[in-house]
From TrEMBL:
The keyword Transmembrane does not apply. It comes from Bacteroides faecis. InterPro entries: Cys/Met-Metab_PyrdxlP-dep_enz, OAc-hSer/O-AcSer_sulfhydrylase, PyrdxlP-dep_Trfase, PyrdxlP-dep_Trfase_major, PyrdxlP-dep_Trfase_small. Its EC number is 4.4.1.11. This is O-acetylhomoserine aminocarboxypropyltransferase/cysteine synthase. The modification N6-(pyridoxal phosphate)lysine is found at K208. GO terms for biological process: cysteine biosynthetic process from serine; L-homocysteine biosynthetic process; transsulfuration. Belongs to the trans-sulfuration enzymes family. Signal peptide: none annotated. Its cofactor is pyridoxal 5'-phosphate. The keyword NADP does not apply. GO terms for molecular function: cysteine synthase activity; methionine gamma-lyase activity; O-acetylhomoserine aminocarboxypropyltransferase activity; pyridoxal phosphate binding.
């Protein structure tokens, strides 16, 4: 679908464009395999000489339609769906890094990604240096080495809610001849399109706002098509030199701007699996059809809730980049003038015990290990995800013992505030 359409139209129309007599609604191609008439036809697919489907571990038409919609929303040239956001982040890096390589990453990222990069990928021989995203360009540049292959950051970090200076990060990455990869899960392309600010690859946990209804785990990788791999061919041999597992084909020569996603599909999905199930892709597509309606409501509600909390005497502190006194307000206004997301963190006077009592007193705002879906929910990391840590250890990990993460849903803001108010009074 042509890119001239506005995001609202892309949410509804992009990806699946049925031809005469085909279903109006994107079908679920619930099939592992695809039929061909001759052995030669199939052989050409295996040699990447023709495009087409042969086995759903690599590609599936339902997934490709949804990936195309996300690519259109982000303004990219190609995308692939993965089984989870974790898989998307792993593949985004592993597609251009191998044992002996290194990448630089903002320290303000989701804890699961931090562990994937800092522990699991190290076991594969891929090293990472974490940098404070607010550090100067010189300090961040100092983390780069000759074997550095990428720079990674989160547009709005989970759960610390720090806003990434995408232009600064893109400049640093490009000065070192490597791509900037941005996890754009929290704002979604409705609120921020990192490619417009210089990012090269975007990743998503589609599990969050994109699905929006907490039904399906999933991820997505989108390529802007802007990074010139061949200009840095020595750094990216996997893309710029022949792949012996495909009879000596070179991805950049054979696929041009589609090289990165084709390699991720043809090599990584082939060898490691982790594709999103077509059933989940179908549900994700339903979520995407209303993303442009839900995101503004999440942001409007979160703004009202953050303002309410910041005026309440029982609340010790509030972190939301839509509040003018927030450290990231100016960056948020620059990159996300229409709002960032619905996630707020705050603490109550009285600390951990008061936070627990508050959460137990909520009525419809539920305690769940999730963020970013239609229903308002809360999590207290000190009691849940980080419960084995002492208060001192929590602070070292950047999690205050009283921190409550509130994911503001799309219910009526007055009802959300009333539930919070009665729990504060309890
Ligand atoms: C910003 C961000 N990236 C990636 C992930 C991982 O996604 P998933 O849970 O879909 O594997 C999460 C999960 O919370 C996240 O918040």
């Amino acid at each position: 679908m042509a890119k001239q359409f506005k995001p609202e139209t892309l949410c509804v129309q992009a990806g699946w464009t049925p031809k005469k007599g085909e279903p109006r609604v994107l079908p679920i191609y619930q099939s592992t395999t695809f039929k061909y008439d001759t052995s030669e036809q199939m052989a050409r697919l295996f040699d990447l000489e023709d495009s087409g489907y042969f086995y759903t571990r690599l590609q599936n038409p339902t997934n490709d339609a949804v990936a195309a919609k996300i690519a259109a929303l982000e303004g990219g040239v190609a995308a692939m769906l993965t089984s989870s956001g974790q898989a998307a982040n792993f593949y985004a890096i592993f597609n251009i890094c191998q044992a002996g390589d290194h990448f630089v990453c903002s320290s303000a990222i989701y804890g699961g990604t931090f562990n994937l990069f800092g522990v699991t990928m190290k076991k594969l021989g891929i090293d990472v240096t974490f940098v404070t995203p607010d550090a100067s360009e010189e300090e961040i540049s100092a983390a780069f080495k000759p074997n550095t292959k990428a720079l990674f950051g989160e547009t709005v970090s989970n759960p610390s809610l720090e806003v990434l200076d995408i232009e600064k990060f893109a400049r640093i990455a490009h000065n070192h001849g490597v791509p900037l990869i941005v996890d754009n899960t929290f704002p979604t392309p409705i609120n921020c399109r990192p490619f417009e600010w210089g990012a090269d690859i975007v990743v998503h946990s589609t599990t969050k706002y994109m699905d929006g209804h907490a039904t399906s785990i999933g991820g997505c990788i989108v390529d802007s098509g802007n990074f010139d791999w061949d200009a840095h061919a020595d750094k990216f041999p996997g893309l710029c030199t022949p792949d012996e597992s495909y009879h000596g084909l070179t991805y950049t020569k054979a696929f041009g701007k589609g090289a990165y996603i084709t390699k991720a599909t043809a090599q990584l999905m082939r060898d490691l699996g982790s594709i999103q199930s077509p059933q989940n892709a179908f549900l994700l597509n339903l979520g995407l059809e209303t993303l442009h309606l839900r995101m503004p409501q999440h942001c409007r509600n979160a703004q009202k809730v953050a303002e309410f909390l910041s005026k309440n005497e029982k609340v010790a502190w509030v972190n939301y980049c839509g509040l003018p006194d927030n450290k990231y307000y100016a960056l948020a206004q620059k990159y996300m003038p229409n709002g960032s997301c619905g996630v707020i963190s705050f603490g109550l006077k009285g600390g951990r015990d008061v936070s627990i009592k508050f959460m137990d007193s909520l009525e419809f705002i539920a305690i769940v290990t999730h963020v970013a879906d239609a229903r308002s929910c809360v999590l207290h990391p000190a009691s849940h995800t980080h419960r084995q840590l002492t208060d001192e250890q929590l602070l070292e990990a950047g999690v205050r013992p009283d921190l409550i993460r509130l994911s503001v849903g799309i219910e009526n803001a007055e009802d959300i505030i009333a539930d919070i108010e009665q729990a504060l009074n309890a």
